[in-house]
């Protein structure tokens, strides 16, 4: 068991001084090597759950366990691929990828070699000395992916990492992610609001209820054959079928979000 | 207007201005006692350069400027950093910083002369009070404005507090400090020259003050000419440094963040 959340609750203080309960009663387990996606309506606390697993947030109530041990502080066995651009603009692609190794006191030359190898693996050979501003959005995501994976984490947390990319770039990135995942067999917890993406990538899709006090309300195993191609798998009748089932539940939650916000 | 025409017009403005000054001075429309004349000023500057008497003054002013800049910057970075990391510090000291920064710094010059004497130390101290605040505010801002996701990312990659400072917070502050480099170097120079002007035995400020005391208008203007040349050189050095240190910035976006 890579990750287990039991009865987790997390609230925030809003600007007006009220308490907003983002998630409550969250029970979630992720098996080692499993690719799990969290989907749900906007503002349902998907990122909050990810941050709980990352150890960036502590739960108000409930327990977070990582490989059977209660999590304290930052989750050292996980890295995080953020939705935002988090590369350091003053470091080259190679220096950015090296960071995690330098933090682990790996000698600089070794770190540099391994960073070069990882950049090649994500298809960026020859771009080692570019600064982030000299790279496209998709390339920056690749650098960020190499940066997260070079430290060989057991768990990879991903928060809508490809949301800002155009459709074509996105599909290529998704396929590359699947290829690397197939080779490395990391445990992945993937947050997205894109149901297509969730089904195409995952072993299991977890649906969250509308916020406030969101929680997982349904789980859908995705037993499509692997290796998958995200574009082709969408044409599979079983894909269509499971999409229909999830969307039916998701639509209900989305409508509840609208009702709550008075839209 | 193309680049070369622009240069041509700029040169024409200069020539016209100098010619008008020279002519009006010869025609006694401008009294040479109060306004001197370009030919006399040029001659004076040339004499200073040929006899070599100017170099000591340039040297002294340069040393004062560099020392004031370095000391003020180091103090500003350290204090700005501490304040940004421990917000209670900034809350406690906020009113005092505000008052100190609002104080017209010129009133400190006499007290610094008393404390540090007529040598370069009092000028450096004066320049430091000017440079410190610019660097301090920029460092504070730079550290506070680091994107939260960038910090989280570094943490997730295993950064210790020291790693965060070294790889994320300081470089981020450096961007802001560098963007204010022109201002802070300029202020260091202002500190040096004004300090010299108010009391010293050497330096470009002293030179101008001496000439003024003797009603030597030509000397005052000649001092100003040398000072302007000096500023242009300093500015070019700063610009080159900036280009080198900010080469990771997209061209055209390297301006001051405000």
State Rg of chain B: 23 Å
What is the rounded Rg of chain A? 19 Å
Q: State the end-to-end CA separation of chain B.
A: 30 Å
Structural class of chain A, by secondary structure, is: alpha/beta
The oligomerization state is heterodimer
**Biggest sheet of chain A, open or closed, and with what strands and sense?**
6 strands, mixed
| Overall 3D form of chain A | globular
CATH architecture of the largest domain in chain B: Orthogonal Bundle
Number of DSSP strands of chain A? 10
Question: Would you write up a description of this structure?
Answer:
The complex is a heterodimer of chains A (263) and B (258). By secondary structure, chain A is α/β, with parallel strands linked by helices. Chain A is built from 8 helices and 10 strands. In chain A, the strands form 2 sheets. A 6-stranded mixed beta sheet of chain A has the order 6-7-8-3-9-10, sandwiched between helices. Chain A has a 4-stranded antiparallel beta sheet with strand order 2-1-4-5, with helices on one face. Chain A is globular. Chain B folds into 2 domains: 1-30; 41-245, MetI-like (MetI-like fold), CATH 1.10.3720.10. Chain B is built from 12 helices and no strands. Chain B has helices at 3-26, 32-35, 38-51, 53-85, 87-102, 108-116, 120-144, 148-156, 161-179, 181-198, 204-213, 217-245. Chain B is globular and about 75 Å long. The relative contact order of chain B is 0.12. The model of chain B is unreliable at 254-258 (pLDDT under 50). Chains A and B meet through strand 6 and helix 2 of A and helix 8 and helix 9 of B.
Show the helix and strand layout.
The complex is a heterodimer of chains A (263) and B (258).
Chain A: E1 3-13, E2 19-30, E3 35-39, H1 46-54, E4 61-66, E5 69-70, E6 78-81, H2 93-103, H3 108-121, H4 137-149, E7 155-159, H5 167-184, E8 187-191, H6 195-201, E9 204-208, E10 216-221, H7 230-233, H8 237-261
Parallel strand pairs in A: 3-8, 3-9, 6-7, 7-8
Antiparallel strand pairs in A: 1-2, 1-4, 4-5, 9-10
Chain B: H1 3-26, H2 32-35, H3 38-51, H4 53-85, H5 87-102, H6 108-116, H7 120-144, H8 148-156, H9 161-179, H10 181-198, H11 204-213, H12 217-245
Helix pairs in contact in B: 3-12, 4-5, 4-7, 4-10, 4-11, 6-7, 7-9, 7-10, 10-11, 10-12, 11-12
